[in-house]
Amino acid sequence: MRIVIMGAPGSGKGTQAALIVKEMGLDHISTGDLLRAAVAEGSELGLRAKEVMDRGELVSDEIVLGLLEQRLQKGGGAGFILDGYPRNIAQAEALDALLERLGQPVDEALQIDVDEEQVVERIAKRAALEGRSDDTEETVRNRLKVYAEQTAPVVDFYARKGILSRVLGEGSIEEVFQRIRGVLQIQSES
Ligand code: B4P
Fold first, then answer.
1. pTM score, whole prediction
2. Residues near ligand 1 with C-beta < 6 Å?
């Protein structure tokens, strides 16, 4: 199965993607993790990406698509869950074209909905625990603005394709996961 998981920063998409992967044996591909790995390597690409991420903006489509294409080629046969990609309509169209070329179209797009104030609260907690440099309150507010302007339209893109499911991301991590399980089982039985 090939799944795209979407939601605002702090909606729990990375958290839920990890649980889905454990249950379904999929490959977890997070563009945020790919970018953070490039930053940690200290490559020129990583340094350019860090500057953009620390402002809460989106890294260029060309850089992210290049990283994604390399990563997809390493994947196994059971399918994958894409976490954090696509983040704008251009990325959604590029992904469609890439997966069509690979003969591996997306089967399911999952949108996790969470209220904005809860998201800010969750990220403040993560900032205290992990100290990620893009988790400051100012950057998070900008990430949310970028999300509303550029990423929210991607939800309609998948709705038009008829493969979108929306899940409420509020409550405990386990409660959200149970909702997602329900959605994925209903889809796989129909
Ligand atoms: P990401 O790594 O995708 O960061 P994120 O949006 O914050 O999501 P993440 O998966 O980390 O957090 P989650 O919601 O699971 O992106 C970071 C940056 O990289 C972007 O701003 C951008 O600059 C760049 N980037 C990434 N992809 C890109 C692309 N395609 N194109 C261009 N640029 C790109 O969890 C957040 C916190 O909430 C966690 O601490 C978690 O423990 C907690 N949480 C989760 N579920 C909860 C629940 N139910 N209750 C309470 N807390 C919960």
1. 0.91
2. 9-15, 31-32, 35, 52-53, 56, 58-59, 64, 84-85, 87, 91, 122-123, 126, 134, 143, 172-173, 176
